[in-house]
Amino acid sequence: MKNLLLVIVAVALALFIQNFVLHKETQNTAKTETAYERVMRTGTLRCAYALYPPFFDKDPNTGKLSGVSYDIMTAFEQVSGLKIEWGPEIDWGDIAATLQSGKADAFCTNTFATPQRGRVLAFSTPLSFSTIEAYARDGDTRFDNDRERINQPDIRIAVNMGDMSEEVARRLFPKAQLVYKGATGGEAELFLNVISQKADLTLSGPSNLTSFNASNPANVLRKIEFSRPLMTFSASLAVEIHEIELLNLINASSNNLIDSGTIDQILRNDLGKDYDAAYFPPPSRLR
After folding, report:
1. Using an 8 Å Cβ cutoff, are 65 and 84 in contact?
2. What residue ranges in 149-210 does DSSP mark as E strands?
3. Is residue 202 part of a domain?
4. Is the pLDDT assigned to residue 215 strictly greater than 80?
5. What's the CA gap between 25 and 102, in Å, rounded?
6. Which residues are bridge partners to 47 per DSSP?
7. Which of 104, 109, 99, 103 has the alpha carbon at shortest distance from 70?
8. Neighbours of 219 (CB within 10 A)
9. 203 and 147, same structural domain?
10. Is 151 a member of any domain?
11. Is the pLDDT of residue 286 over 90?
12. Which helix (H) or strand (E) holds 221?
């Protein structure tokens, strides 16, 4: 009787251990839903965004969204059959972390496809092209047509951590000092750091300078003159680097909008004099 009881206990213990191991294995191998699967299940693409007029803007009083990227995604919504859900609003240095955390499926403000971002992000077909320039205080001509003067230890460049400005500064001006803006200061803080003489210059897109100077007529900045732009980038939608299925889904509609001329028309309507000057349309395969 005693031996039988021991056998029963041993069998029960073995079954318990087996079930426990199987449960843990099931937990460990449970498949996490991808962004693509979530989009297909819900019919909604959750779009994080950053403010970057004229590509993306928000009325501070009404919260109304507008701009090139907003209009592109409105057209994307129509052709793809997906609903666009906007949010969260983030800083440019937080794109990768936001997508990796699953707080959004895609970053939908046209963003520069830089080599460093390419380590953690996958980019759609380019929706526009743009230049990056250097900007200094009005009257400061030290750097005109002399890029090497910027690449010196006594020069301070205002940059945004993890963003295009930092990447370009490190690549083109590795000897210069980098002055980082606050995490939530917005692009205008780059220019304010130059105005306040915390930095000698900053790196940004043309629309940022136009917007800043319009809001600060007593403290304007000027574009440093060179024979050509510091750098040119393609601007795209971005997803987490492993989300290739979602990228294919996005590209199917993006290519259609390019080839139909829809994106070119949006750029013409929204960019004004900057169209085909500071910002360039993507080439259509049908034109």
Report:
1. no
2. 156-159, 177-180, 201-204
3. yes
4. yes
5. 24
6. 86, 106
7. 109
8. 15
9. yes
10. yes
11. no
12. strand 221-223
Residue pair 132/167 in contact (Cβ under 8 Å)? The answer is no
With b for 16 or more beta-carbon neighbours within 10 A and e for fewer, the 34-55 pattern comes to bbbeebeeeeebbbbbbbbbbb
φ/ψ of residue 121, rounded to 5: -125, 150
Task: Answer yes or no: do 124 and 188 share one domain.
Answer: no
Give me the phi and psi of 219, to 5 degrees please.
Answer: -140, 65
pTM: 0.73
Average pLDDT over every residue of 126-131: 93
Residues 241 and 174 in one domain: no
Do residue 66 and residue 98 come from a single domain? Answer: yes
Please give the residue range of the domain that contains residue 268. 35-129+233-280
Residue 18 pLDDT > 80, yes or no? no
**Model pLDDT, residue 17:** 55
**Does an H or E element contain 280, and which?**
strand 279-280
Q: Tell me the average pLDDT across 215-231.
A: 92
Q: Supply the CATH number for residue 51's domain.
A: 3.40.190.10
Tokens of 94: 């937080």
Start-end of H helices in 216-243: none
Higher pLDDT: 53 or 184? It is: 53
User: Residue 2 above 80 pLDDT?
Assistant: no
In this predicted model, what pLDDT tens digit does every residue of 84-94 receive, in sequence order?
999 999 988 89
Tokens of residue 244, six digits: 């290739």
pLDDT over 70 percentage in the chain: 87
Count of structural domains within the chain: 2
Q: Which amino acid is at 279?
A: Y
